[in-house]
Amino acid sequence: MTNLRPQITADAAAAPAGISFAKDIAPLFNATDIAHMKQVTRGTLDLSVYNDVVVYASQIYSRVSSGSMPPPPSKAWTQQMVQLFAGWISQGTPP
Ligand code: HEM
Which residue's CA is minimally distant from atom 27 of ligand 1? Predict the structure, then answer.
């Protein structure tokens, strides 16, 4: 995977302080996202589970910032959602 650090840092600069998984990140994933990704990864990526999202954080950031996930007909993430996720990574993935 290419070095995403500079891009993550740039996006995180626009994010608010005090981001948490429970309050800010978990609500970014809807039921369709959670069901499909559990199936596609045979249960290794449950987008509602904190530890799974931490392990896949760089891959998730890469996919939502490029717009390849969620795939159509789901709507791509807004820039604000991508910046929030980048901010969470930069703040050390608080639970
Ligand atoms: C925000 C929501 C989503 C995120 C963050 C996400 C993230 C990811 C990630 C990280 C992978 C690579 C997994 C791996 O290599 O082990 C992936 C693959 C995949 N996802 Fe998603 N996904 C999302 C929503 C969806 C939805 C809604 C669908 C189906 C309708 C979907 C279908 C797939 C499929 C088929 C693959 C395997 C093919 C590929 O690598 O492109 N995903 N996704």
Answer: 33
DSSP state of 17: S
Report the alpha-carbon distance of residue 75 to residue 69 in Å, rounded. 9
Residue 5 is which amino acid?
A: R
3-state helix, strand, coil split of the chain in percent (to 5) is 55, 0, 45
- Domain assignment of residue 65, yes or no: yes
Q: Is the pTM of this model over 0.85?
A: yes
Position 11 in a domain: yes
The answer, yes or no, to whether any atom of ligand 1 lies below 6 A from the CB of 53, is no
The pLDDT of residue 3 is: 83
> What's the rounded Cα separation, in Å, for the pair 39 and 31?
12
